[in-house]
Design a protein that fits this description.
heterodimer, A: 2,3-Dihydroxybiphenyl 1,2-Dioxygenase, domain 1, four-stranded mixed β-sheet, 3 helices, B: mainly alpha, 0% strand
């Protein structure tokens, strides 16, 4: 039986910029930041209250599993903001929205009422989109 | 020292290198050198500056360290694989020799070697080789 998701990959164009964003703007904890001999950099970050999940900030680099063409295609999709999205939960959408906006996070939609709660939408500095959701009970 | 005796002592030492995973007795080890246990013990200590038992313990601890570093197997399994018969004495001896318990030793080693914490599927993606 599978018990939980422990690592999830987020593709980013620039790992250093992404690290700054997730650590300094979103306040995530950096769990790992190591570079292998072949240059591959392994960075994982974690939302403040979720100790069993590591988000892998992965650069789409050509290598054994990704040919040049695919790597370029993924980078293009990142540029266009088409690499998918995720949802982060918050206990106060309005307050977190204001806090993050003051830190320079770009929102495409301010907090709005939904069937499932209050939701705003922001993007990171590498082309990924996220909902910021305060769930209804 | 007589060259023949020295060769016999070395043979007994190699026997310990090969068979440390088994519960060896002084009788069994000294038999490899064809010397009585009492004389073997004395000659071994004179020649190698440690008792056969100390040599065997060093060998076992060295292997235990390698296993703790390289394989994610339980401390109990490491203990028996390297030839100790009791988990308690393994942990006590390990701490005495290395300065940490086996579990702590592994944790410290892994923290110092962060690459060993990267899931194998990612290593495979970036090196093309299984971990």
């Amino acid at each position: 039986m599978i018990t939980k998701l422990s690592h999830s990959t987020l593709y980013v164009k620039d790992q250093e910029k992404a690290l700054e964003f997730y650590r300094d703007k979103l306040g995530f904890k950096v769990i790992m930041d190591v570079t292998m001999d072949n240059g591959f950099r392994w960075i994982t970050v974690q939302p403040p209250n979720q100790k069993d999940l590591e988000i892998v900030l992965m650069k789409p680099l050509a290598g054994p599993m990704l040919d040049n063409e695919s790597a370029k295609a993924m980078q293009l999709l990142l540029d266009k903001g088409l690499m998918g999205a995720g949802v982060f939960d918050t206990d106060d959408c309005q307050k977190t929205y204001e806090h993050l906006r003051n830190k320079g996070v770009e929102f495409s939609q301010p907090p709005a009422e939904r069937f499932y709660g209050i939701e705003a939408i922001f993007r990171d500095n590498c082309g990924n989109w996220f909902s910021l959701t305060e769930r209804k009970e | 020292m007589d060259e023949d005796i020295y060769k016999r002592l070395c043979r007994a030492r190699e026997f310990m290198d090969d068979c440390y995973g088994l519960p060896l007795t002084l009788d069994q080890i000294s038999r490899q050198a064809c010397i009585s246990p009492y004389h073997f013990h004395r000659l071994f200590r004179q020649t190698f500056e440690q008792t056969p038992h100390q040599y065997l313990t060093d060998r076992r601890i060295r292997r235990a360290k390698e296993l703790l570093e390289s394989k994610p197997i339980a401390v109990t399994d490491v203990c028996f694989e390297v030839g100790f018969q009791s988990l308690g004495s393994f942990i006590t001896l390990f701490r005495k020799h290395v300065g940490h318990s086996p579990r702590t030793y592994r944790r410290i080693f892994i923290v110092r070697q962060p690459l060993s914490r990267i899931p194998a599927c990612f290593i495979f993606m970036f090196t093309g080789k299984p971990n």
